[in-house]
Amino acid sequence: MDLNAPHSMGTTIIGVTYNGGVVLGADSRTSTGMYVANRASDKITQLTDNVYICRSGSAADSQIVSDYVRYFLNQHTIQLGQPATVKVAANLVRLVSYNNKNMLETGLIVGGWDKYEGGKIYGVPLGGTLIEQPFAIGGSGSSYLYGFFDQIWKDGMTKEEAEQLVVKAVSLAIARDGASGGVVRTVVINSDGVTRNFYAGDSLPLWHEELEPHNSLFEMLSASSPEPMNI
Q: Where in the sequence numbering do the catalytic residues fall?
């Protein structure tokens, strides 16, 4: 176990558009090698009042990109006298990521709402490419979710359907990906503003091997008078 390893967010991050806004979601596990450094970290960071960013990869790299972009967007808002659009914020994230692609190890999802284009989701994977998508998934847990999203995604979802999809997807990734875990945090952004929600780990649905065993060898051995096993 390397306790000096850089803090990384082997992570599950998700951004989904719905009819009227976007929902962002993430787990909360931050690791240092094999050691869980923080089991309740917040990987959804505010850039402006109407734009948030989901962070994965190196925790330090994703934080410094978010800090720079937040500063630039603040200057942009002061100069224009109005909030920056989601597209402007995503392009600034792309610019910082691409110009420093040889030094950064982070994948990001930018999501938000503005009065010009409504709810928008942009993926900025490792290397600094900018991709507008109806939904985006990232982090180590994303490899378990592509088939799930191909099957269950639909256009024009309601806010409740979109948030339920995000929570279910993150809990699925937590069940399969050892680098994802903890709680599920969501951020809903629409014309009414921003709503943050929190789903504790013990409230998430259980999947497959996580379910309590029934009539298993474990139960037989722990019983006071185990019955003999016939072969």
A: 11
